[in-house]
Amino acid sequence: MTRLLAPAVLGAAVLLGGCATATAPAPITSGNHAPLLPSVLFPGGAESFTAWRCSPDQALVTAVPEEPDSELRLWSAHGAWRLQPAVVASGARYEQDDVSFWNKGDSAIVETSRGRLECQVYMQRQALTRQQRPGVMFQGRGNEPGWMASLAHDRPQVTLSLDYGAREQTLPYRITALDNEAGRVVLGSGRGDTPFELRIEAGACLDDMSGEPFPARVTLTVEGEQYRGCGQGIAP
Q1: Which residues of the chain have pLDDT under 50?
Q2: Into which CATH architecture does domain 45-126 fall?
Q3: Sequence ranges of the domains in the chain
Q4: Are residues 90 and 78 in contact, defined by beta-carbon separation less than 8 angstroms?
């Protein structure tokens, strides 16, 4: 069997629990086209992500475009939501079903049927763009050791880089599971001699070294080893 990624020559309180409500068209799983990933893996036109530290203890991630009346995308450890702007006397308020998010400055209050969170801005990060990552539709990364997985935007192909780039290979993939509503996709290798699994799930993810916020948790399994990290969809 060919060993995947041979050395190359050449990233407490569950008050917000649930699932993503956004949907995307069915994926293209054959031919030379890349699939359409769930939209909640992307920033939705926002230029940055914001991480919030909340009490009771929980981390949230949000993204909202600067255009007036834009929806707010909200990620917790258990799912993702797309909230619509609502009328409020001061600050900004967004709602969807039983979830509401109100913020003013660096403070926010999140209310659901399960309870209330009081949050403070922890960190902001500029969203990755196609200009910064040419040809990449989604990128996941993790630490210790550093690894990266980059999905091509125009074909079902992933570039895997392990051990800080010491091992790198570009491989075809196939979709083995997809749940648009939950924002979950599982990819498997398109080659029998180089197996791997890449799991992508919408949810608040903070880089375990920098604390930077991302809208997806990513797990890469290669040769029995698991690599965990965060990721983001990159729109054109």
Answers
A1: 1-3, 5-14, 19-30
A2: Beta Barrel (2.40)
A3: 45-126, 128-233
A4: no
